[in-house]
Amino acid sequence: MADAEVRVLAQSDHRAGQDLARAAHHTSPISDREWAYAQDLHEPGLALGAFLGGDLVGTTFLLRSRLALPGGSTVPMAAATGIAVRADRTRRGIFTRLERESLDLAVAQGFPVVGSRVSEATIYGRFGHGVGSTTRAVRLYPHEARLRPEVPAGGEVRLVDGETSVGLLPRLYERLGPYRPGVIERSAGWWKAKWEPLVHSGKGAVVAVHSGPDGDDGFAVYQAMRGGDSGARVTLMVTDFHAANPEAVAGLWRFLLGVDLVEEVCARRRPADELVEGMLVDWRACRTHSVNDDLWLRLVDVPKALGARSYRDGDPFVLEITDDLLPANSGSLRIGPDGVERTSDRPQLSLNVDALAMAYLGGTSFTTLASIGLLRVTDTKALPNADRVFGTDRAAFCGTTF
Ligand SMILES: CC(=O)SCCNC(=O)CCNC(=O)[C@H](O)C(C)(C)COP(=O)(O)OP(=O)(O)OC[C@H]1O[C@@H](n2cnc3c(N)ncnc32)[C@H](O)[C@@H]1OP(=O)(O)O
Fold this sequence. Notes:
Aminopeptidase; aminoglycoside N-acetyltransferase activity; alpha+beta; globular; seven-stranded mixed sheet; 19 strands
C-alpha cells in the first residue's frame, strides 16, 4: 500500500478531522450545535491530516497554550489532541508519520514543548514523551471527614450560576496564573469548547468560587450523581478545582465537605502534594483511589525548554541528552542557577529525552530516574546536586483536559 501523505489540514477539513478522531474514540460525529462551540478551538495551520488516495485517515491537532514552570515563568506549549488513525488503517505506521511531522510542526511554530493527555501509556515514550506530572484521585466521606482546627480558615465561598460562570471562570483562571508548575493556559476557544456546552447542557454543573482578602482566588466545579439501589445516594464528582493559595484550597474543601445530603465527595484530579488526609481529624476519611499520569511532555527544543525555567542554588552540572527523533537536541548542556548552555565538557549525568520530560517540572528526581535505570551516572557527586538544582516547592499539576 502507498505511504500516507501528511499535510497541514485545511480549516475546511477540521470538522472531518474531529469526526475521525471522535470515531477512533468511539464517539458519534460532532453535531452542528457542538461544532458551533468547538470550531474556534482549532487554529489554522496547527492541525495535520494523513491522506491515503485522497481520503483522510489520520489526524493530529495542536492547540496553542503555555505551560507553567518551576520558578513561575511560562513557556509556549502545543497541546496535542485529536490524535487518531481510522480503525481500518491502523498499525501500518500512519501515526508514526503524523507524530514525526507534528513534532517538526511544533518546533517550526516556536513551541519548545508539546503536551498531551494520552489514551494509552505505551504509545508515546518511543517518540520522546514522558510523564511530566501526576495526579491523585481521592474519595472523601463527609460524615467522617471533619477538618482539623489548624486548617487555614477565612475567605468565603459563593455559588455562581452557569451564565455568570461563562464570563467569570476564564477571568478567574487567568488571574490564578502559573500558580504551580504544570498548570497550562486555557484559551478563549478552550473555554467556549469545553465549558460552555456543559453549562448549556443542563447537566447540573455547580460552580463554587472562593474569595479571600484580595478577591476571587479559587474555584471548584462539581456535579451531583445519584447512585445506590434507591438512587438516594449522592456523590459529588469534582471535575475542575484550581486554587492559588492554601486558604482557598482549604476553603473549597471545607465547602465541598459541608454540602448537605452527600454520601461521598470524589475528586479525580488533585495535585500529588495536596495532603487532604492531613487536613482531617480522621486521616482515613480520605482514601486515595488511584495515582495517575497527568500531563505528558515532549521537549522538542531542549535548550529553549530548559532555558525557560529557573533553577535553585547549586553547582552547575553537565547533562547529556539523547534524542534519536530530533537529533538537534542531542548533546550536553551545562545547567545551573545562572542558566543553560551547550558544552563539550564530559557529561556527569546522561538520559534520554523522554526521561528528561519526567524531570523537567521537578516531578521525578534524578535520583529516582537513576534508581529505575533511566539515568546514567558518570559522576556520583552530581546526582544530589542535580536534584537540588531541579528541585521545586510544589508538585507539578496540570488538571486541564484538552
Ligand atoms: C493525545 C491523544 O490524543 S491520545 C489519543 C490517541 N488515540 C487513540 O487512542 C484513538 C484510537 N487509536 C488510534 O487512533 C490509533 O491506534 C493510534 C493513533 C493510537 C495509533 O495509530 P497507528 O497508525 O496504528 O500507529 P502506528 O502504526 O504508527 O504504530 C506506532 C507504534 O505504536 C504502537 N501502537 C500503536 N497503537 C498502540 C496501542 N493502542 N497500544 C500499544 N501500542 C500501540 C504500534 O504497535 C507501533 O509500534 P511498533 O512500531 O513497535 O510496531
